[in-house]
# Entry
Amino acid sequence: MSQAITINRPNFSAVNPASVEQQLDTLLSEYQSVIDRVAKLENPSWDTLVRPLEEAGNKLSLFWSPVSHLNSVMNTDKLREAYNNSLPKLSAFYTAMGQNSDLYEATLRLRNSDEYNQLNAAQQKGLNNDIRDFELGGVSLSDENKKRYGEVAQALSKLKTEHSDNVLDATNAWEKLIENEAELAGLPESAKAAAKQRASEKDMQGWLFNLEFPVYYAVLMFAENAALREEIYTAYNTRASDKGPHAGQFDNSTNATEILKLRAEKAQLLGYDNYAQLSIVPKMVDSPEQVIDFLNDLAKRAVPEAKREFAELEAFAKKELGLTSVNTWDVAFVSDKLKQKQYAISDEDLKPYFPASKAIPGMFEVVGKLFGLNIAQVNDVDVYHEDVQCYAITDNNGDLRGEFYLDNYARPHKRGGAWMDSHSSRQQVEQGVQLPIAYLTCNLTPPVGDEPALLTHMEVTTLFHEFGHGLHHMLTRIDTAGVSGISGVEWDAVELPSQFMENWCWERESLDMISGHYQTGDAIPDELLEKLRAAKNFQSAMQLVRQLEFSLFDMQLHMQATSHSAIDINQILDDVREQVAVLPYPEFVRLQHAFSHIFSGGYSAGYFSYKWAEVLSADAFSRFEEEGIFNQQAGKDFLTHVLEMGGSRRAMESFVAFRGREPKVDALLRHSGLAA
Ligand SMILES: [Zn+2]
# Structure
């Protein structure tokens, strides 16, 4: 079977901020007329209903993705303005499409037609996802309930904004000027310099501190002055609450309970008992109870070890630092000292072994060996900056699978962090099969002068992580837009390939492929590698129980909240802490009031996803531990059962096909230094 392939590379040079909005308007109105036309079809078929929508969607994203990408990596005032003006148009368009009941009815007619049984599994899955998403958006409710659903959605959106505004305002409201440098003992010079500049910008003498996370974190970790640590800890952990320096002023107590009530009502309108049930519908897990069991099981194993770690910390604090007790505001400070003593390893020790010129081609070699691929640079393509390179991935049959644009280094007007984004997805288009193209963006430390760019081990791990997302996007064999690559993959399974790839940054055989001293070419010494691996698990049980605390709290809130009465949020958190926490939280702590992930972000009844995906990735990698990290059959199986399948079937099916059984937590526990 050979199909014509087509590749639609981004045309960065053609992006013109002055015409972006107008071009977008044109594309949206073309898309809208396709929707209007196909929604009326009496007897819709895949080719008359879905294909035209896919084509219109593809046209829109081929236009929009370079605009959005450039806005992130080559930001200018003009482009930002065009981008910001376009966003509301796009979101209004997609909201209206999701609530278009004619389109929903047409999709249902296709789902119930004879043709449905002739569609392939990916097409069926895509269609069913669409119907599910329409229904979760309230499209099929009675008129009365639809009206109420709309009111609830609007109220929720307002409350979520208020919640995050309160957190932001509370964060901004607190600052502290320190005039005596002696009080800053222990802080790194960089943190002090930043504090001094902050003060001088406000015409103050001294060092100014605020509650921005890096500032807060530096004080907690490094300031020798315990009273200062306590003060900033108290301010930070009472933000937007009824306690602390701004008690009651930006208080989220009421709107948090209102948010929970309205979510419960939304779930009820859609026929679910509680919001947690609704939240897990598009996820990999089957029920809230399964999530609770999963978290409880981890807790049972991790809590004793976390208690031991905390006792060790207390003993160290007493013996070496003369502290009679370890308060919550001392934990980061004491932990850092203990870590230094136990491992004596710093980022700087490893950097000479990771020149980018070795790490990046080495990563391609690792991936090539693992999955039978060849990755080669493509010349003479349109790029937006000299740092950017385009690569093509070809498999062992000589088939081109996809391309990616690698943009490695930090520079001005480029958004921070690292991410993978799609330019185009694998899907059927008029000319045949369109191949996927990814943007891989990092902010690595750029080369200085004649020295090559030397990467930290963390930066190399980040590269592998993002490349894992990229491989998931590019190696798919599915031709249906909604479920190819990472599209349609359950939220709690998306991080499987990315976290999975990180493992090749910790093994001698693969490390030797991605590292080598930039002056001598020497391999990383055994002793250094051992230290690196040992430090990886420092306090891993304490970190794990903290994640469990957040995850259990989030689930319990959304399982217990009802639409008719306010829930006691603080009591629920106290109960969860009783079960899993090892830190001696003071009564005034109100971290829950600023827990934006679940109140204003997208993680409501979903915070567990972080841990869930880690179980999957650790367990998937354990097969390579058993069979060899470059075992060809294991590599091929991961490629065909996970990466190539995309969202065309449930993530659990893909996992079982690869691993031969359902996931187990043993590997994660072992990797975290906890006995299984
Ligand atoms: Zn990720």
